[in-house]
Amino acid sequence: MPTISRVHGATIRMFYRDHLPPHFHVRYAGCEATIDIRKRIVLSGYLPPQILAAVVRWAQLHRDELLQNWRLCAVLQVPQPITPLR
Fold first, then answer.
1. Mean pLDDT, rounded, for 49-73
2. Residue 80 covered by a domain
3. Mind telling me which Pfam families this protein's record contains (predicted)?
4. Domain containing residue 37
5. In the chain, what is the straight-line distance between the N-terminal and C-terminal CA atoms, in Å?
């Protein structure tokens, strides 16, 4: 599962050939969540509210890049790094 970015210490990753809807995985301080790229909602898991807000803000800014990376991962190509939010 490639790491594509970081947001305030949280690691943003995508699986190759993952199930729909397009989403990414976040890990932070022992917490994990799956975030829908288009709707920017939590599909599963938990993140502390401040981290979740930062991740959602970052995902809004980088929606097109996230969707492009989703398409790359769907065909087993390496996703591109996305500018982190610090």
1. 98
2. no
3. DUF4160
4. 3-74
5. 22
